[in-house]
Write a structure and sequence with these properties.
By secondary structure, the chain is α+β, with helices and mostly antiparallel strands. It has helices spanning 6-23, 140-162, and strands at residues 46-49, 53-59, 75-78, 89-91, 97-102, 118-122.
Length: 163
C-alpha cells in the first residue's frame, strides 16, 4: 500500500471493521442460557429472557443437573405451555395473553420430559371470554336504578338527622 497516507489506512481499517460487524450473523451474539432466567425460581414461576421474551420456568425431569453450576440447568425459561395442558391460559413471548395449543407437524424431543409441541398461541382459554360465561362487565342500564335507590335512601337518612 505505497502512496497511501496513514489517515487513509485508518479510514480503510475503520470501514472494514464496520463492514465486518454489520455482516456478522446474529447467532454469534452472547445470549444467556435459558436456565439463567430461572435462577432462584420454582417450576411454573414467570420468567423473562433477553429480548424481552416472556415465559415460565419449566423443569426437565430427564435432565441431570450440573454440579459445577450455581443455577439449576434443568429449570429452563421456555414457553409456559411446555408444562401445561392444552387449552390452559398462558403468557405469550411478547407478554400478551394466549392459550396453549398442540401444534400440527411437530414432534416432541424424546430426551425432554415436557411437551415442546404444546405452544402458547393467540387466543383465550375456554371460560375466559364473556360470551362463554366467564367474566362479564356490569350492564350500566341495570346498575343505574340500584344507584338511584341507594342515593335516595342516603338522602332520606340525612334529612331525618337535620330535623
Amino acid at each position: 500500500m505505497r502512496g497511501v497516507s496513514p489517515l487513509q489506512r485508518l479510514a480503510l481499517a475503520t470501514l472494514a471493521g464496520v463492514a465486518a460487524l454489520m455482516t456478522a450473523p446474529h447467532a454469534r451474539a452472547n445470549v444467556p442460557a435459558a436456565y439463567l432466567a430461572c435462577e432462584g425460581a420454582e417450576p411454573g414461576d414467570p420468567c423473562v429472557q433477553v429480548g424481552p421474551q416472556y415465559g415460565a420456568c419449566v423443569l426437565d425431569t430427564l435432565c441431570t443437573p450440573d454440579p459445577n453450576l450455581n443455577a439449576n440447568n434443568c429449570l429452563l425459561c421456555q414457553d409456559p405451555c411446555w408444562a401445561s395442558a392444552p387449552g390452559s391460559d398462558c403468557t405469550r413471548r411478547d407478554g400478551t395473553g394466549g392459550v396453549c395449543e398442540l401444534q400440527d407437524q411437530c414432534t416432541d424431543d424424546p430426551t425432554r420430559s415436557f411437551s415442546e409441541c404444546n405452544r402458547c398461541v393467540e387466543g383465550r382459554a375456554a371460560g375466559v371470554d364473556p360470551d362463554d360465561g366467564g367474566c362479564r362487565a356490569a350492564d350500566v342500564a341495570t346498575g343505574l336504578p340500584w344507584l338511584g335507590l341507594l342515593l335516595l335512601v342516603g338522602l332520606q337518612g340525612r334529612r331525618r338527622r337535620r330535623a
